[in-house]
Amino acid sequence: MSEWTGFLLIVVGGAMQGTYYLGLKYVEPWKWENIWSVYALFSLLLLPVALAAATVPSLRGVFAGAPSPAIWSVFLYGAGWGIGSTLSGLGVARLGLAMGVAILLGVTAAIGSFVPLVSKTPGLIFQAKGLMIVASVVTLLAGVFLVAVAGKKRESSQAGSVKAVIPGSFSAGLAICIASGVFSSMLNLAYAFDKPVVKAAVAAGASKPAATYVVWMIALAGGFLANAVYTSYLMTRNRTWKNFALPRTGLFWVIGLVMGALWFVGVVLYGRGADSMGELGSVIGWPVFLAAMIVFSSIWGFVTGEWKGSSARAKQFMGGGFVVLMLACALLGVANRM
């Protein structure tokens, strides 16, 4: 697989992950914790286990051959990401699809890219390629800043009108999304530092792509644990377990399945694409992946009416942020060819 094919796979994966949030808008009278628990069950547990079991000859052999600290490291990175994933749903519900996803993914892109760059290839930082990567991520963060300003102006201009987001403090939603971004970067760290697990999977008879599926299975199991604990707590506190028995909610399970499939296939495509880009796959591919998510979630935010009634100034800032994010993707493409 060529580097450009891998680059394209990452963009497609990002587009899929920028779309899955749409399901949150179409599950009334379910509450957030209901649909999020279903989505997490499919995307973080059932689908990853099914894919790994179908493509790896001996999962038992993988766990016997991989060092325990390596397995636990991947699992704990996944659990940290799971905390970020849980927070992302809460943050997006308060800030809206376009702004919420942009902010949390901007923070995720910066941390998830810089940590592998500094720890794995420190000598590259001050070379032309490393400087281009840094410039690309900084450009992405500038786009995120413009999107955040646009969101604040949108909130002000929509005051008193019907909003497409949960009422609440902009500052609280912003803080949730930033915290989510910090924790969410840990999923890329699980991938960036997965070599002992991949080596054990290959030794157990798995192909290189299938070996990566084992890493996702372990990391996402940690993520599922974090999500399951929190959503169970909310359903107990809010007495929303009973929502699963409401009439005509079978469709919501289908929506949760589609959300989970979009998210998980997006992760798989990212892993395949990043693998094809070599040692810097997790450094260059991660911000590309997240920038694509921001762009497509922004498009869906406009399509679904989140910006209806907002001021022209707010839309101008959002459009400017969109252009800067596209520029960041272009710069990362240039860095990939250097």
Concise overview:
Helix content is 78%, strand content 0%.
Keywords:
mainly alpha; 338 residues; single chain
How confident overall, as mean pLDDT? Answer: 82
The radius of gyration over CA amounts to 20 Å
- Label the structural class: mainly alpha
What portion of residues is helical? Answer: over 70%
The end-to-end distance, rounded to whole angstroms, is 18 Å
Largest sheet: none
Strand content: under 5%
- Give the overall form: globular
Low-confidence stretches: none
Work out the number of β strands.
0
Helices, by number, come to 13
Order of helices and strands: HHHHHHHHHHHHH
How many structural units, i.e. domains?
1
In terms of quaternary structure, the protein is: single chain
Describe this structure in words.
The protein has 338 residues and is an all-alpha fold. It has one domain. The protein is 78% helix and 0% strand. The protein contains 13 helices and no strands. The protein has helices at 3-17, 32-55, 59-65, 68-95, 97-120, 128-157, 170-184, 186-192, 195-203, 208-237, 250-276, 281-303, 312-337. Helix 1 (3-17) packs parallel to helix 12 (281-303). It starts with a helix and ends with a helix. The relative contact order is 0.24.
